[in-house]
Amino acid sequence: MTDYPLGQVEFVVRTIADTAVANEKYFGDLDAVVGDGDFGYSLARGFELVIRDWDDFDRTDPATFLRKVAVVITSRIGGTSGPLWGTAFLRAATAVTSKSAVDGPTAVAMLRAASEGIATRGNASLGDKTLLDSLVPATDEIERQIGLGSDGPTTVRAAATVARSTAEETAKLQARRGRQSYTGERSIGSVDPGAVAVAVIFEALADTWAV
Amino acid sequence: MTDYPLGQVEFVVRTIADTAVANEKYFGDLDAVVGDGDFGYSLARGFELVIRDWDDFDRTDPATFLRKVAVVITSRIGGTSGPLWGTAFLRAATAVTSKSAVDGPTAVAMLRAASEGIATRGNASLGDKTLLDSLVPATDEIERQIGLGSDGPTTVRAAATVARSTAEETAKLQARRGRQSYTGERSIGSVDPGAVAVAVIFEALADTWAV
Amino acid sequence: MKKFVNDPNQFVPEMLKGVALANPDTLRYVPEYNLIMRVDAPSDDRVSLIQGSGSGHEPAHAMIVGKGMLDAACPGDVFSAPPMDYVLETSKMLASPKGVLHIINNYTGDRMAFDMGKELAEAEGVQIKTLLVDDDVAVADSTYTIGRRGVAGNFFVIKVVGAAAEQGADIDELVRLGEKVNSVTRTMGMALTSCTPPAKGTPLFDLGADEMEMGVGIHGEPGRRREKLADANTIVDELLEAVVTDLPYEKGDDVALMINGLGGTPIGELYILYGRAFEQLEARGIHVRRNYVGEYCTSLDMAGASLTLVKLDDEIVNGLSAPADIAIRTF
Amino acid sequence: MKKFVNDPNQFVPEMLKGVALANPDTLRYVPEYNLIMRVDAPSDDRVSLIQGSGSGHEPAHAMIVGKGMLDAACPGDVFSAPPMDYVLETSKMLASPKGVLHIINNYTGDRMAFDMGKELAEAEGVQIKTLLVDDDVAVADSTYTIGRRGVAGNFFVIKVVGAAAEQGADIDELVRLGEKVNSVTRTMGMALTSCTPPAKGTPLFDLGADEMEMGVGIHGEPGRRREKLADANTIVDELLEAVVTDLPYEKGDDVALMINGLGGTPIGELYILYGRAFEQLEARGIHVRRNYVGEYCTSLDMAGASLTLVKLDDEIVNGLSAPADIAIRTF
Ligand SMILES: Nc1ncnc2c1ncn2[C@@H]1O[C@H](COP(=O)(O)OP(=O)(O)O)[C@@H](O)[C@H]1O
Ligand SMILES: Nc1ncnc2c1ncn2[C@@H]1O[C@H](COP(=O)(O)OP(=O)(O)O)[C@@H](O)[C@H]1O
Ligand SMILES: [Mg+2]
Ligand SMILES: [Mg+2]
Ligand SMILES: [Mg+2]
Ligand SMILES: [Mg+2]
């Protein structure tokens, strides 16, 4: 993480962006099962711009940096994901306002703020078969690991494991939000693309987390 | 042939009609290779009407009967085949005018008249890859068999054999008439649907020819 | 993938550029925001009508910009709501003293993008109202979903509202009129085949050779159920039953009937559907006074069709019969 | 087969019936002869224009009957020339004191049916002249074939001749005008996929996933050659080179440009082709003054497109810009 002046915040954002671009086809195929297939494309096109503008983002502090990234995401990702992910980044920024570094409890607060932003913007609750269904349990696990005194790599790996298993469990749920919800009971049996994307991102973080 | 007041003339027409209807798909598939696929459909729809009106045709003599059939074919078969086959039947009728029965030489004269009608109407010569390329040699063979004093079944079987082999040989030719001709050299390698139809008809005649 | 495409990521911009090149006197293309707008908009005398949604539904909506219909369209990528930014910038560029009307189809992504874009544009002084189209009867209005989807019926809403806007109607009047048209418009569609988004390169879903999808969404979302392939009459009867009984349309009603092709179905087949639908409606005592047979709101190259009914009154008929000048034309 | 069809043998009649039901005030359907005609034809003041050809090319020709275009169409079955009988009866029903003009595409079957029908109708006192359309540059004019095929260019011939007929021009003038338009019109098409005739139920030919057919005929006849699938720009450039160099169209020429969809290609893709063609023509100094993007002469559900150029002069522009009232319309 030595390349990143803002340390872990920057590293996390960059990993999310790289993961989104690398998984365009996979995420799109997941969305094609009962959705409309654009999820991978939307994320990739938006995060491509984040990567393109990477060097130019204002890095005064983590909040400023996150806010700038949020603007790109909100304004340039189409579909439902632009507003949802943009809101998540914006709320995370607010949660770290005026701090120059991010410790464990702050990270948890940022993730909670992001989830709440998504829930509000999307009018979604846990169990509606959305990305919240892996993001919220993964956040809980991070909080638990911090309470146990685990180190960074252990914490992130544990979060990834939880994100993956809860993402897989969304297959049992009936979609109540997004395009999938129109299919009613037919959405049961396939995983939620957003929830899987969260798992893939946490796994990418776990694979490279240094300290 | 006892069912047919006009004997062999009627039997031949009925066999042509039945064969056209029974081979709709086969003839259509042959035409789809380098043509436009409508040959089987066109023949079947036209000869279906011949069968439908079968009992109502004026049977005063063979010429009258053939002329009535020709009108149905000409006026109701679409594509190139309506005018071509209609002309063939009309010319055959003319060749048998005022005769009450058809002997061997008359049959040959009728077939020659039919071929010449097709050649004129279609501006086609032997070797242009059309139905003439099996019809003309088959007619030659009938004439030869009559000269040898062969009986009916032998003569028709010999004609069928020649029609089949010459139809197969059309695969070597480049189409110079009809929709296939637009493909130029690409028409080489596939048989001409019209020539094959003639062979199939002669084979059907040979299979059931009684005296 | 059997498509005319260069770089799949440039599919939408290249299409929009083509539309503008074909209509240089009437339309302008602003590549930064995927924006197609009338050259004479905004006008001080006219509320500006904007529609945005995913692309892939052409002629909706980029090709129905013009006098008497939309002032601008800001389509997103194929099947994706436009980014909020496009909505914001389009609203600002089209700001008229009489206001801006957002006409949107009822989907989560579109509603979010337009809500956020509206809020930001209003903060910059643009007056904006919203008209929601939700004519699809395939999806039940439940507490879980955000309600019915907006599909081919948007043509009628835009046509009637566009005619009134051209006459100088104020924005509240346009909202009233649009809501009225939407309230008497119902649609159901079905797919014979899937469609292939250019960037995906493979069909969005699999339909067996002997299957069809009844109630399919215009983004290829699955519909009510998958059924065994049926003949044209059976399909029309099923669509009609769902649509007629929903409003319901009743004996003595005058209606407009639209048979909308989904992109891969030739117009000859659409007229076969039209003939059946017309006769079945007559048999129910419902009179088809206007008809629309062709492509109005498609799903890329999907083979399939939707059937829309609009209950007519004089006000709606006036709007539908008013002239308009858009990219889609015969001459 | 993924089609809207009931009995495949009734495909054409059911389609024609639908067209008539959708246009009760202007069109009449005579089932005995597959005939769609203007309700106000024949007229003593107007030469009657008749076009017949195989079906499956819709909107050509059943859907372009109407004021300013055809007086009648007598289509045959899918891809088959109409039987001679239809030509005869249609000619008799449309007999006008000013004469009847047969507008036919140059195919053996159509020419034979129209020749024979003309002869018989003339014997019954109908005055008839013939106009041949042969705009397809894909097929060389050799001593073997009967010459070029007639394809999408027939739209321009019919539109210009139809406008003049509506003004009361006499039959020789119409022949002169039609031959002139045909002489400055050139087309080439290509297929991304085959098409499936309803009565056949399977694709007419096989095209590999990475193949395309350049110069395909509108009945699915093979074209110049099969090539490796290319991107949209490459395809346009190849079609354009063949068409431009054929007449040839030259620097400084004013042209109409048509991008015609073959039935299975959505209009969004057609506009991508249009944008490229427009720019390449401009680069050659050839000016696109009128454009036509959509479906004009199709091959059932074939994915593909054709490109047509017409060299314009004032007389042709007048005919093209005249109003017409046909089944294909937007409102
Ligand atoms: N209303 C919502 N609230 C929260 N998350 C949602 C909502 N709608 C969709 N999602 C999430 O977004 C994902 C789909 O995103 P995307 O394909 O971009 O949107 P769309 O459904 O508009 O095509 C879903 O898998 C789900 O995780
Ligand atoms: N000009 C012609 N003269 C003689 N026979 C012809 C001619 N054109 C086509 N044929 C014959 O007709 C057959 C095709 O008939 P059909 O499919 O009905 O016509 P089309 O080529 O118009 O689709 C060919 O196989 C050939 O035998
Ligand atoms: Mg999606
Ligand atoms: Mg043929
Ligand atoms: Mg979407
Ligand atoms: Mg044919």
UniProtKB/TrEMBL annotation, chains A, B:
List, in alphabetical order, the GO biological process terms annotated in this UniProt record.
glycerol catabolic process
| Source species, domain of life | Bacteria
Q: Which residues form the DhaL domain?
A: 7-207
Tell me which UniProt keywords the record has, alphabetically. Answer: Kinase, Transferase
List the GO molecular function terms. Answer: glycerone kinase activity
Please indicate if the UniProt record lists Cell membrane as a keyword: no
Note down the stretches annotated as region Disordered. 167-186
NCBIfam families xref list: dha_L_ycgS
Q: What is this protein called?
A: Dihydroxyacetone kinase, C-terminal domain
List the top taxonomic levels of the source. Answer: Bacteria, Bacillati, Actinomycetota, Actinomycetes, Micromonosporales
From TrEMBL, chains C, D:
Keyword set includes Nucleotide-binding: yes
Q: Name one Pfam family in it.
A: Dak1
Give GO cellular component annotations, separated by semicolons: cytosol
Q: Which SUPFAM superfamilies match?
A: DAK1/DegV-like
Under which name does UniProt file this protein? Dihydroxyacetone kinase, N-terminal domain
Sorted alphabetically, which keywords does the UniProt record give?
ATP-binding, Kinase, Nucleotide-binding, Transferase
User: Which InterPro entries is this protein grouped with?
Assistant: DhaK_1, DhaK_dom, Dihydroxyacetone_Kinase
User: Which species does the entry assign this protein to?
Assistant: Asanoa hainanensis
Q: Which GO terms describe its biological process?
A: glycerol catabolic process
Gene Ontology MF terms: ATP binding; glycerone kinase activity
Q: Where is the DhaK domain?
A: 7-331
